[in-house]
Amino acid sequence: MTLAPDLAYLLKTRVLVVRREHPELMAAIDYGVRSGELIPVLPGVYTVPGMARMPRVRMQAVCLRHPNAVLLTEAAARVSFWPQVSLDAIQVAVPSPLPRQRGFAFTRRKIPPDLVAEHQGLRYTVPALTAVDMASFACSDAIDHALRTRMATLSGMHEALAKTANRIRNPERLRLLIDSRDEPWSAAERLAHNLLRRAGIRGWQTNLPIVIEGRLYFLDIAFVRLKVAVEIDGRQHEDDEDLFESDRWRQNALVRDGWRVLRFTWEMLREHPDAVVAAVRAVIA
After folding, report:
1. Do residues 269 and 232 lie in contact, with contact meaning Cβ atoms separated by under 8 Å?
2. Phi, psi of 273 (to 5 degrees)
3. Of 69, 132, 196, 204, which is the most buried if we count CB atoms within 10 A?
4. Which of 162, 181, 200 is the last residue of a domain?
5. Last residue of a domain, one of 17, 36, 51
6. How far apart are CA 6 and CA 25, in angstroms?
7. Whole-model pTM?
8. How distant, in Å, are the alpha carbons of 111, 170, 233, 281 from that of 131?
9. Both 57 and 36 in a single domain?
10. Total domain count for the chain?
């Protein structure tokens, strides 16, 4: 590296360099950009080659470049409750319009201060608002994931929605929260809850914690008085071998403890809802 010693040392202690914060290094920064040893992430914010496209670096860059910026949707989910969520353009709320930047999507929006979290230099919407922002009837995964990880509560999501009123699609978001009243942890569980409600089947609880042989389990749907468990194999069960294996150990433990267990897949719920309802009715009759 042929960067000036002071700049090279600075880059050993941090990933990003903000030009306006180091007037004494401006000439060295400009030379580094011309020589290709520095890459602009945003105007005035630079890093070394190979780092500029990393999501975390881009998030840090926008929060450094724009002190009032707040990360939204997938970017906010990445740093709070859903690190594996796919991320393309980084959605950012800013108080005033900004020119377009490749890899970023700026939205003029003011986030209530109590719905903004800050950690390690990143500002982002709290999980309750993030999940509500991301949710749609086409994909409710954000709400389900936030509930499953316990990073947000249903009441917290209702409160976040109320504090960000008069937004497009808020009626849809409200209907989704009402649809989430039994706190599904996956799309498959949400579908199962809807089937039971429409069939008029009552007396069940969701995500019931029980301890068997010293291990904690959460039953997807439980008729506690009858000791009947309904286990839902969501879409993630199809590809996760470890999850498939653990579910079998879990089912064996439930049976040994005296539970009757029904197990339904995503495909069964979608393609054969009447058969699913009939099976549940037969076991609880």
Report:
1. yes
2. -60, -35
3. 132
4. 181
5. 51
6. 8
7. 0.86
8. 14, 13, 23, 34
9. no
10. 3
Q: Provide the token pair at 148.
A: 């499953």
Pairing of the two strands 215-223 and 205-212: antiparallel
Helix (H, G, I), strand (E, B) or coil at 125: strand
Would you state the structure tokens that stand for residue 76, as one six-digit string? 């906010």
State which H helix or E strand residue 78 sits in. helix 73-78
| Residue with the two structure tokens 């520095």 | 38
Question: What residues make up the domain containing 228?
Answer: 187-284
pLDDT digits (tens, 9 = 90+) for 142-166: 999 999 999 999 999 999 999 999 8
**Backbone φ/ψ region at 73: left (φ over 0), alpha (ψ -120 to 50), beta:** left
CATH of the domain at 227: 3.40.960.10
Q: Measuring CA to CA, which residue among 264, 177, 256 is closest to residue 217?
A: 256
Nearest to 104 by CA among 63, 153, 138, 143: 63
Q: At what angle do helices 187-198 and 273-284 cross, to 10 degrees?
A: 70
Q: Is the pLDDT of residue 241 over 60?
A: no
Instruction: Write out the two tokens for 282.
Output: 């037969």
Question: Same domain for 28 and 102?
Answer: no
